[in-house]
Structure formats: C-alpha cells, structure tokens
Design a protein that fits this description.
- This protein has 28 helices and two strands.
- With 584 residues, it is mainly alpha-helical.
- It folds into three domains: 313 residues, Na+/H+ antiporter like fold; 52 residues, no CATH class; 176 residues, Hypothetical protein af1432 (Orthogonal Bundle), CATH 1.10.3210.
- The chain has a two-stranded parallel sheet with strand order 1-2.
- Helix 17 links the parallel strand 1 and strand 2.
C-alpha cells in the first residue's frame, strides 16, 4: 500500500503547481523569477558535470551491446511510440499536451531511480550506472533534436535558437563542470545533500515559473478533469508498453537476466531532473506548463509501477525467513568426521626428537607476548628441533587433500559450523548455486589461516578454483557487511556493536571497497552472501558437509594433485593450513 502513495517530491511539485495556479507571478517579478530559474539550471548542470565520474562513461565501452540497446529504447523506440499514438489519436489530447507527451518520450533516462530499482531487482547495477550517465549526457544534445522533429506533426516548431539555448544553458555548463572535476569532484561527492537540494530547488523554481506563465495563458481551461484523466491513461499506456518492449527485446537479443533488468528499468524511465530544466529552456513561457505536465504525471506512475516490478524480479532471489535455521537443529561435525587412526610418533617426521613449535610472527604483534624465538634457538640440539611436517597433535591430511578435508580436519569448530550453516541457508532458500558456493567459502580464511582482512584472504585462497564472480563476491562481502541495504532487508549486524563497540567506524579502504562494490554488476551476489552470513550463527543445526559434494563438484575445480600441491597462485596458503606449525 505504501508503494501506491505519491513520492514526497511529487507532492512538493503538486503543491508548487497549486501555488502557481493560485498566485502566478507576473510582470517584473516573473522576469526576475525566470532569470533566477535560468541561473539555477546553469548551476544544476555544472554540478552534474562535476559529479559524473568519468569511469561511469568508460564502462559503456566494455558492454556496448547493453548500452546500445538501452539508448535505442530511450531515444528511438520511446519517441516513435509516442509519435504513433499522437498520429493515431490526434483528438485524444489538446495539441500542447501532445507536445508534452512527445517531449516526455524524447527525454533521457533517470539516473537515481534506475539504479535503485536495478539494485532491488538484482540486476546489472554497473551497467545501469553507465547507461544512465551516457543517456543524460547524450540527451542534452539529442533530446532537442528529437523533439524538434517530432513536434512538426503538431505544427509546433522548436526553433534553432531554442536548441542553441540548450547548448548555452545546459551543455556548456555540464562540460565545464566535468572538466573541473579533478579539482571540485571530491567536494561534490561529499556534498550529496547540498547538491540534492540544488537539484530539487531548481526543479521547483522552474515548475513555479513555468506554471505561472501557463496559468496566465489559461492552461487549466485546456485541461479539464476528463482531459487530465486521459493524459494519465496515455502515460500508463506508454510506460507499460515500453516495459514490455524492453523485456521482449532483452530476451530476443539473448541478454543475461541481470542485463535484462537494467534494460527494463533504465530503458523505460524518464528524467524529471533533466526534463523540467530542459523544457524551461526549450519552450516558450506559456507552453512550458503543458510541456512538463505529462512528465510530472509519468514520473509518479513510473515510481509506483517499477517499484512493484523490481520486487517481483527480486522475489525469487531473496531469502525466505521460513527457510532459515531454527534452534531445534543440531550440529553433526563429529559424526561426519572420518576416524583418525592412532599412529605412533615414529610415523611422523623428525621421529625420536622433541619438536618445538615457534608461533608465527604475526601472532605476537600487539599482544604483549614475548617472542620466544631467541630462547628456542638456544635450546636446539640433536634431540630438540623445530617442527617441520605433520604434527601428531593434528589429524593427518590425505596426500591429495580436497576442500571438505580442510573443513573436517583443519577448520575451527565455529568456522566449520558457520560456513555450513550459511551455505545451507542459501541452498534451502533456493538460491543459485554460485551463491551457495560463495556462502560455503566466504569466511574460509577464518577457519585455519587469518582473521584480519578475511574477505581478501578467503578470495585469494579460492580464486584459482572458482569463477571470477564468486571470488569477487567473497572479497567484497567483508566491506558490504558494514553497510546496510534496506532495499534487500540487510541491516548493520547487532553483533558488530558487541564486537567492536557502537561507535566503530570502518576504515577508509573498507568504505572505498563498499562504494566500488555498490555500483558493480556483481553487487547482489556479494550482498546475498552477507544476508545468509548474518542469519547463520545458530548453535543447534544439523549440517552434513557431504550434501555440498555436488555443488562443490560443479563450482569448485579441485586439482587432481590436491589443494596445496597443484602449483596455483594460492597453493602455498593451502599448504600453510596443512602444516601450520612449520618453522619455515
């Protein structure tokens, strides 16, 4: 029900339209407001240029088929559909409103909500970022050209002076802001609230100025309630048609599901932030109100409809609370561990001598414990050596160890339990197997190697044996756990307040990794790991490691020589877990 309520900013715009209808500005005041609105538009696009990361545009070159499809829907199919409707039903709306509909169809995609809905639906967020950025940049030049061609059918001529004004008021400030990005970009990135206020303030000024002029020219006489209802219907038809066309095109062209989501949301949405200022510059004063009225209606409809569709896309991917562990389950590590044969000390290396274990140097750092290396060196002799090879205190690993051997024979009880529970949660929720294997491996470094920067260590451990996407998700889950994502129901873990204190702030490199991940195409793969990670601290839960044998077989390339002996980039890390007490 909440999704059907108007967007808060739409309510502000409705109030602005009401104020302009009741108290339209005239004369010198109207001229001053018009000048102020123009100045605000110049500032708006200057700041847009400063905020746009150049790498967002460069992403378009890496997946050009996706971006070409989105741009074709935005600037070709959408305008042609609007033109077809206006020609087929010319008397359905007054000419000025049809011009507004055509202007709506020619606009670039919106950035913020396209990204938000793509993220909720688990689509290609990075692709959406790149396409929306390119769409807005191209739209500054392309939209006036398209609308000039389309409006000829309604005897409404957009003069070249109007297009030139777009260049002066919008394109040049945008380019200047982008050129100055190396100097003002960091400030712009940190001033999102201020710049968000600038965006909205500019739109409010432009709407008030536009509707004041339109009301003076008797706009509402042209738009009675029945006409308004028809306009709403036209906007609904446009949106639903484009959503269906975008989905059909994505599937016809063989795009992956994540890319389909980007095409559906980025291709079907229109930018209020770009549209209102552009109309203010492009159209003559009395016609601006009619030009932006369809856009304001379409904006609210697209928010309601796309929010519902995004949730539908996500429905098959998010965890079902009913599938999460309950406290009646019991752990079965001991019953699934193979028995360890009793062996005499003579079967181990360095038999007949005392084998000293020197803790690894990193374990001393910052603990206040004394490093015993000097004292132990003095104790060396024929009957006393540093340990090398198998330790009789640990279960002996097979000659060619596999992944589950490390789970059973090396991992700590907590890590063993946690990883299996995490993977079981994902499996029971019907997640894709790449999510299951990522959950099974995400904290693997904690099991028997290192806890510090465990996401990076874990990713490096498994990178030679899993897909690039799984390794990326494992690495970035470390950063994502510190940042909530309410769109998928992930909150900052309460356990972290206990572990680190409620005032703990992650270091800059973690924040940077989060910001990088947030716009990456594999963001949701890593985010889902954090979701099942959070729900996987149950003490009593029956998990048999063998149930993951098939998943491991399909998604983890176990070397024939055994982990640690295949010459991979991480083989030495596996050997360290096999022989954790080696002196060298």
């Amino acid at each position: 029900m909440r999704r059907l309520l108007p967007d808060a900013f739409v309510l502000v715009l409705v109030l602005t339209v009401c104020m302009a209808s009741l108290w339209p500005v005239r004369g010198a005041v109207a001229g001053a407001l018009s000048a102020l609105a123009t100045a605000a538009i110049v500032l708006l696009f200057f700041l847009h240029g400063a905020r746009l990361p150049r790498e967002n545009l460069s992403l378009a070159l890496r997946h050009w088929q996706l971006h070409a499809t989105i741009l074709a829907i935005t600037f070709v199919i959408f305008p042609l559909l609007g033109l077809a409707l206006s020609i087929a039903f010319p008397r359905l709306l007054p000419a000025d409103l049809w011009v507004g509909v055509l202007f709506l169809c020619a606009l670039p995609s919106t950035v913020q909500s396209s990204i938000a809905f793509t993220s909720i639906a688990h689509g290609n967020v990075a692709g959406t970022v790149a396409s929306a950025a390119a769409s807005n940049l191209i739209g500054i030049a392309l939209t006036p050209t398209i609308i000039a061609a389309l409006t000829q059918a309604h005897a409404t001529n957009i003069s070249f002076s109007g297009i030139w004004n777009i260049v002066l008021v919008m394109l040049l400030p945008f380019v200047l802001g982008h050129l100055l990005r190396p100097w003002i970009g960091p400030w712009a990135a940190k001033s999102k609230r201020l710049l968000g206020f600038t965006d909205r303030g500019t739109i409010v000024l432009a709407v008030y100025s536009a509707f004041s002029a339109a009301v003076i020219e008797h706009l509402w006489r042209q738009v009675p309630l029945a006409t308004f209802a028809v306009l709403v219907g036209v906007c609904v038809v446009l949106l639903i048609s484009l959503l269906l066309i975008a989905r059909f095109a994505a599937r016809l062209l063989g795009f992956a599901r994540e890319d389909e989501i980007s095409i559906v949301f980025c291709g079907s949405k229109k930018s209020l932030v770009s549209g209102v200022p552009m109309a203010r510059v492009l159209f003559a004063g009395p016609h601006v109100g009619a030009a932006i009225l369809p856009l304001m209606i379409f904006h609210q409809i697209q928010l309601i409809v796309c929010a519902w569709i995004a949730r539908r896309y996500a429905a098959g991917r998010m965890p079902d609370p009913a599938s999460l562990p309950n406290e009646n389950w019991t752990i079965q590590r001991k019953s699934t561990m193979p028995p360890v044969e009793e062996e005499s000390s003579s079967s181990y290396p360095q038999a007949g001598r005392e084998r000293m274990i020197l803790p690894q140097p990193i374990t001393y750092q910052g603990t206040g414990l004394l490093n015993d290396e000097k004292a132990m060196l003095q104790q060396l002799g024929p009957d006393r050596v540093f340990m090398m090879g198998d330790n009789a205190a640990l279960p002996r690993m097979p000659a060619a160890p596999k992944l589950l051997d490390f789970f059973r024979l090396r991992f700590s009880e907590i890590a063993f339990r946690h990883l299996l529970q995490s993977a079981k949660s994902a499996l029971d929720a019907g997640q894709d197997e790449k999510i299951v294997i990522a959950c099974l491996l995400h904290d693997i470094s904690n099991g028997a190697l290192l806890r510090s920067d465990h996401g990076y260590w874990s990713a490096q451990l498994v990178a030679p044996y899993v897909s690039e996407e799984v390794a990326w998700a494992i690495q970035h889950h470390q950063a994502l756990r510190y940042f909530a994502d309410e769109s998928v129901g992930f909150k900052y873990p309460d356990a972290y307040n206990r572990f680190f204190g409620s005032d703990y702030e992650p270091p800059p490199y973690i924040r940077h990794a989060y910001e990088e991940a947030r716009v990456h195409r594999w963001y949701m793969t890593s985010r889902l790991v954090t979701i099942y990670d959070t729900y996987s601290f149950q003490d009593n839960w029956s998990v048999d490691p063998e149930q993951f044998t098939d998943v491991i077989g399909r998604h983890f390339k176990e070397p024939k020589q055994g982990l640690g002996f295949d010459g991979s980039a991480s083989a030495h890390m596996w050997r360290t877990m096999i022989w954790p007490n080696n002196f060298l």
